[in-house]
């Protein structure tokens, strides 16, 4: 992760919106050369199958972010790509993303992750918001928003995340004390446990004891299953899953088995949650009646009864699958960046300490008083985005970089190259959480600058777990870095892929 920033080879086109009228680009404008045609967009080769072969041969699936960065450098700020059965238009400038966002419609659509969808279909599981589209998606999504996105929901689940973050720090402190003066460790397994413990507490209202000296093997297996499911997804995206299923291809079998495991883990906990709630309410669910205690997202959805049990299961399983790697990996990068930028770490720590002292023990107030925590997370996700693209299918014709994009084309905002582009960010490789502070000049650097922080996607279809993830990560950093004067994070080792070890001295 030490590459240079993206230098764009082509100048930006002129005013994009002028040629679109009533959702259609005027044919005359295309013919007269005012707007260039779709076919003229620079591309990486016409044959999707030849490209797919190249991807396999050069192992590009694991380096897709680098491939995109290189391609933008070579072809400019927009290019087309066909790989296997998929075709996309790729963009990275905020003004273009803003244009895309304006044409996403009432039911925004992402690229379907076909292997995930095929798994649900062959096992006859319902789909959750991640895989649904249209009105079906919207009606589930509105229910979920109430439980995980709205400010009332955040207030309900924040104390649960705070409890898990504090316990994690206590466990770390005990380890530091046992080790003597300092502790050097690979934080990765602990971060995954932290993320799973936090997810289970918020989603099921249940602590699962992952910080004990003998955490359960079942939970470890769940973590492995999520990792296996995620690593087998990219190569499967470009091949028809049903064909692989017929051939019993090992890649497909591994993928489907990983999903089966994720489903059975969720199923067992949902059953337990159901029984717990039923017994606490004498057999029937009444909204808000679980003894006044917050019963977790699952309990809330069951109490309200607006979604069928089947849909609750589908959505809860997706929340669980989406909730572990997504926060554990950025936290690892946060430790890495804070470790190798001690002056930034000190600034964050100072702000956290002051805020903590003024917050009177209220974690939400403490977070609000320490905006550098939010800046740190934004900065980590800018440099190391979890999902490297956000895709949409515009519902009307649009013009990007002066090229005609017909409605229904898959357009991807490429987050990794955007985060490292010097056209979009000043000194892009510098880790600087203050660049997100309000009033900083840089905020106005690029046109459409509201569309520079896109790690959670945008609009009505943005990440539904966003508030859980942001608060979970910020509380973790608050407790690990600032709450105790003793915790100072140092980076140890020099692994190519980021943090090898974190060092916590007394
Ligand atoms: C750093 C952490 C995370 C990042 C960067 C992230 C990123 C994303 C992105 C980019 C999308 C697509 C949004 C779009 O199309 O505009 C998404 C969707 C989604 N995420 Fe996350 N996510 C994170 C954490 C989580 C967590 C903790 C959960 C569950 C608790 C979760 C559950 C979901 C679900 C269910 C969707 C589909 C939403 C829909 O289509 O309506 N994510 N996420």
Structural features, described:
- The protein has 506 residues and is of the alpha+beta class.
- The chain has a domain at 20-111 and 383-458: Uridine Diphospho-n-acetylenolpyruvylglucosamine Reductase, domain 2, CATH 3.30.43.20.
- It contains 19 helices and 11 strands.
- Helix 7 packs parallel to helix 19, helix 8 (188-204) runs parallel beside helix 12 and helix 9 packs across helix 11.
- The protein is globular and about 70 Å long.
- 42% of the residues are buried.
- It binds protoporphyrin IX containing FE.
- Residues 110, 129-130, 141, 318-319, 322-323, 326-327, 330, 381, 386-387, 390, 455-458, 461-465, 468-469 line the site of protoporphyrin IX containing FE.
- Protoporphyrin IX containing FE is lined by residues 110, 129-130, 141, 318-319, 322-323, 326-327, 330, 381, 386-387, 390, 455-458, 461-465, 468-469.
In the CATH hierarchy, what is the class of the domain at 20-111 and 383-458? Alpha Beta
Helix content: 40-55%
Instruction: Using the coordinates shown, work out and report the CATH topology of the domain at 20-111 and 383-458.
Output: Uridine Diphospho-n-acetylenolpyruvylglucosamine Reductase, domain 2
Ligands and ions found: protoporphyrin IX containing FE
